[in-house]
Write a structure and sequence with these properties.
177 residues, mainly alpha, Four Helix Bundle (Hemerythrin (Met), subunit A), 8 helices, 2 strands, globular
Length: 177
């Protein structure tokens, strides 16, 4: 709970992403087996990066209007499109599977460990790949959970928005060195 009395929806989120190298390998191999990655032209990264920037620009509008749920949803999609932009730029692969794209970034060492630590500031107990899954869970609450969407707070929206900004900035730096 925050000092203003609002709930901390992010601390309620749990992660289903693998936490060990062995589990990550098994998860990734399952993504491969299920054909969750599609070969696309490497130039397609530009479209995903533009979509990521667009989604992030819309976050600010929702944030100013106090639509915390939609700020979280759009920030998440900004991260998802940026993740795919990086995967496409580096590997020529795209994935609609949200978990698979994030595991692929780790598997192919496209995000250095120090960035995982920085991105982990989303919540003190998350300092790795789990942060991606946590905002994915918050996005699902904001988008689909008719009982809990209103519990997303300004502080939750601010942390997810900050995460999206830092991640997009990193991806842009990798795509346009």
């Amino acid at each position: 709970m925050y000092m203003d009395g609002s709930k901390d929806i992010l601390s309620e989120m749990t992660t289903n992403l693998p936490r060990t190298t062995k589990a990550s390998d098994a998860f990734f191999n399952n993504c491969m087996k299920r054909r969750r990655f599609v070969q696309v032209p490497k130039d397609d990264f530009v479209k995903h990066l533009e979509k990521s920037k667009h989604d992030l620009s819309q976050v600010d509008t929702d944030y100013i209007q106090g639509s915390w749920d939609w700020a979280v949803v759009k920030a998440y999609y900004s991260v998802f499109h940026a993740a795919n932009a990086l995967l496409i730029k580096e590997r020529g692969e795209y994935s609609k599977d949200h978990s698979c794209v994030f595991v692929a970034l780790e598997r192919h060492d496209l995000i250095p460990p120090d960035l995982y630590k920085e991105l982990g500031t989303l919540h003190g107990r998350f300092s790795d790949l789990a942060a991606f899954d946590i905002i994915y869970g918050a996005r699902k609450v904001g988008q689909y959970d008719v009982d809990r969407w209103a519990s997303i707070s300004q502080a939750d929206a601010e942390r997810v928005r900050g995460f999206a900004r830092r991640f997009l900035s990193f991806v842009e730096g990798r795509c346009y060195p």
